[in-house]
Amino acid sequence: MKTSDFDPITVEVFQRQLKRATILVLVAFGILVLRLWFLQVLNGPLYRTKSENNRFQLEDIPPFRGIIYDRKGEVLVGNRPSYNLYVVPEGVQDRAGLVSNLKRMVGLDPALVEQRLDQTSRSYPFRPVCLKKDISRDELAIIETHRFNLPGVVIKVKPQRHYIYRSLGAHILGYLGEISEAQLKGGAYPENRQGDLVGKSGIELKWQMYLNGKRGGEQVEVDAAGRKIRVISRMPPVPGASIYLTIDKELQAMAENALAGKKGAIVALDPQTGKVLALASSPSFDPNLFIGGIDRATWKRISSSKDYPLQNRALAGQYPPGSVFKIIVALAGLEEGIIDPDEEILCNGEYTLGERTYHCWKKTGHGKVNLHRALRESCDIYFYKVGKRLGVDRIARYAKMFGLGRKTGIDVGQERTGLVPTRRWKLKKFGIPWQAGETVSLSIGQSFLLVTPIQLANIISAVFNGGILYRPQVTARVGEVRLERIYEFRPEVMGRLHIKPEHLQLVRDALIGAVNEPHGTGWRAKLKEMVVAGKTGTAQVVTLEKEKVVDQKGGIPPELRDHAWFVAVAPADSPRIALAVLVENGGHGGRAAAPIAKEMIKAYLGVAG
Prior knowledge:
Elements: H1 8-42, H2 44-55, E1 56-61, E2 68-69, E3 75-87, H3 95-106, H4 110-121, E4 129-132, H5 137-145, E5 153-163, H6 170-173, E6 176-178, H7 181-186, E7 197-199, H8 202-206, H9 208-211, E8 216-222, E9 228-235, E10 243-245, H10 249-258, E11 264-269, E12 276-282, H11 296-303, H12 313-316, H13 326-336, E13 345-347, E14 350-353, E15 356-359, E16 367-369, H14 371-376, H15 380-390, H16 392-401, H17 423-430, H18 436-442, H19 453-464, E17 468-470, E18 475-481, E19 484-488, E20 493-496, H20 501-516, E21 533-539, E22 563-570, E23 577-583, H21 589-592, H22 594-605
Helix pairs in contact: 10-22, 13-15, 13-16, 15-18
């Protein structure tokens, strides 16, 4: 049949429809070609990369964090296995049953399990989903016992930080916390990624770079669903370097036990080198609490506590030194020639300056006292008068010579400087001149004067080691990496006392007398087999007038009671240990602090009482 046999109108309609169909086909084909060009040419590299990623993935292998040891090689901080519970979505046959079983066996929240499975199961059904980290051994036993009824459940083992003795040495060792966004962007943590735990304080922070180690990884072949096919290559992680401390674990434990139930601090040094033998702050905390992510209630309880357990009182606690400061005033008076060691000053229990009367701790007075007896029995009147002769600025100059008013430079912790007041400082701070009565208070370690326990331990060390101020150090050495020692302890001199040897000897003799002679305020630290030297201190928290405020039992409320100090060295002729003991609101230093020092000296040097 020919075209001419069709009706002209029918032919025209057919040709029009054919033209439209042809155009439609051409447009569809053009779109297909354009889409292919977009996918293969324009975005080809992107999809090629995605394709490769579907085939090859790099799985992270975290390193073991470096071990921390005490001076004798005993492990203080190590790593333990953490058993983490995962579920592979593709392996789950009965999700409702699994959710119910996990709630019953390990207490998992069903809504949380459903949420985490939904987030992964659609895109990567073979990728394990972590449901709970660090399950207990009991939970692990339950899971393993019922593994047949838990299809899809996988247990993975990862290293986790472990503070073996819990709160022991917590302020020295520090704790870990999740790395912050700012730290990641700062570039100082190149080996870390989001979610990693890094040092937040103490040794963990100080040596973070070396403790961290270097992460490893496995290149594995997977399919598009995330199913692992085989391991292509593996780079093992490099464990972190070991840290060896100068701390004696037994002495540290003894110091912390002595402060149990109290607020305070104890510092023990080797006076010949500056090595820190013990550094205790009470109350303390358990660094293990921070490992798995501390819950809000626990963090609120710790951070809002009025006892400030996170504060390292040994380095950052600032207190009036009380009568311990008389050591410096005595040496200043001798060096400046304003007192003769044999000069006797009358103490009748009171000293009047202007309209105010200042009292001695012994209400009846000490009678006539020379320098030796004034230090031995801690006579306040003697030092009021010596301080008045010296003046505030000369006292301040000697205080700074002993390292007060600045950080000791210890290699751990957030240290504070304390405060040494001067005329200029007060005028600038308050806009009013220094008063003569403030010098009187300053001369017995009160007024605006503030010190830290580590500073007082350094002072007593310098008096008995020949006048050398060493920088206290906690790190003995950092372990070897590629056969090279990263760091090894060497004594560092931070200053010297420009004081005549004979003046130092006079004060040393008096401090020996304070412990070993009749009426010495530190007699509770006396030992039979060894000569101990020391000085007590009782620092007022409030003024005498305010102490008239009594509690319901008719006594001074605990928070208003005096702080108790005691500094000591032993043996006095060739000291091997120097101590500063502070008991907050402990009352008299001779009663509350000296017995602690005695027991620590006995234990460390192995002598009888």
